Amino acid sequence: MTNPNDNTPSDKPPARGMRRNLATYGDPGFSLFLRKAFIKAAGYSDDALDRPIVGITNTFSDFNPCHGNVPRLIEAVKRGVMLAGGLPMEFPTISIHESFSNPTSMFLRNLMAIDTEEMIRAQPVDAVVLIGGCDKTVPAQLMGAVSADVPAIQLITGPMLVGHHKGEILGACTDCRRLWGQHRAGQIDEQEVEVLSGRLAPTQGTCMVMGTASTMGCLVEAMGIALAGSGTIPATHADRIRAAEASGREAVKLALHGPKPSELLTPAAFRNALTVLQAIGGSTNGLVHLSAIARRAGMSIDLAEFDTIGRSVPVLIDLKPSGDHYMEHFHWAGGVPKLMKELGDHLDRSARTIDGRTIGEIADEAEEVPNQVIIRTAKNPVKPTGGMAVLRGNLAPGGSVIKHAAASDQLLTHTGRAVVFDSVEDMVRRMDDPDLDVKADDVLVLRNAGPRGAPGMPEAGYLPIPKKLAQAGVKDMVRISDARMSGTAFGTIVLHITPESAVGGPLGLVRSGDTIRLDVPNREISLLVDDAELERRKSEWQPPAHLAEEARGYRHLYLTTVLQADEGCDFDFC
Ligand code: FES
To answer: Is this model's pTM higher than 0.85 or not?
Structure first.
């Protein structure tokens, strides 16, 4: 693979440090002279400017408490870089927080990937430390770094500590959803909801259940692009700062000797990531993000292979939403290295990691914690098979996914009557209508909530239980959509139906009253309507109105180039 980032003729050694990626004035000597003149305005010496340069992405934002510790992490990374003889240079990229991203954080992930890639390309960095944590930031950074193909190391901001309320341990955001459900059912009043909003996310850092952020923290270790043990350290602990310093030190070695992402992120690395994704009962979003990262590396994630891995790899981590505990407990039980030890030959132990060790060597050196109950053995798993399954059928010819580890066992094989919502807005308008014709054994269907349909594939796949059913004690129903779902959510929920309805997928042909069959053991999701009737409905189908409207700027770029979930929802030109 050639690196378009290097502007040096191929018969010469690649330019390093300040000589790298010069601005174009038609005279490289002048470009370097001018660059030095400007950077010296910041007080740098010639000695400093001759060192290997390690870029550090600054993703701090007042709107992103999941990245609230980034300033301290940057300080520690800089210390590590300087202790190893390099020059640290911090630079900003955009920062995305789940709750401060309209219309959705997924709409912006590719923008952050492009920002990260182009800033790495544009500036003279020999290696880069990517500091991210909140759900979309880590995948965006990896997508950008893979495309730029400059040596990169991921540093996770780390999970929050747990919260407490009335003697109960709470975590964002599994308990946010559970408690909001209780509020909708009339069991928790407004006053208590206000109190809870101050207790569910009690520290800086990322959601501390096995949501998307925690999932990505584990996957970067499994792929070998973060230091072993660094993905799970709580955001507020001193070890998190030490991991930052160590990442800075490691980045100087990377600047001098590599490997580049193209050398590290091999098919074995992605297969190990898929295996760990199944074993942690990880977020369904992790699958979309891995697909996008792999695509940037010139590979594709085979959904059938992912499903096959899930049939033999058990869920070994007892964390919410599939289990009972939280990320800090997982960390102190031995973290990802211990998990990888328990996974044994399910992993490719020969895969290399960022510090030169293999996955097998890291697993063998995992800490043994007596009597810990979070990381189970294969003989005593949380679930005998993996966390997710890939479903196909006439409703999802391109595939769909269900996190069956976090579903109700009795609903995994279910046939029911469809209750269809045409859009997120339609769902909001009608779901709690007392006159809505819905029963507990119906199948709730949401469409036009995919990558183009919403747009931005919102985490609307966790359709709320209709209020009248919630008040009657119904806790779970089969719900299907072309949307995503937060990794922190629980329920029998089929997601990422591909192709999405907004581009003509069969989900757009379902009518309320149709019969839908879900059969997870046989990996099937089907609409029990005959083909002739479906053809008739197809001839009447219309795309959602917003796809026919003029769009400008980033929205235009997004709507015209975003791919489907099975290809990671990246832009087609990336
Ligand atoms: Fe940032 Fe959950 S909102 S990780």
So the answer is: yes
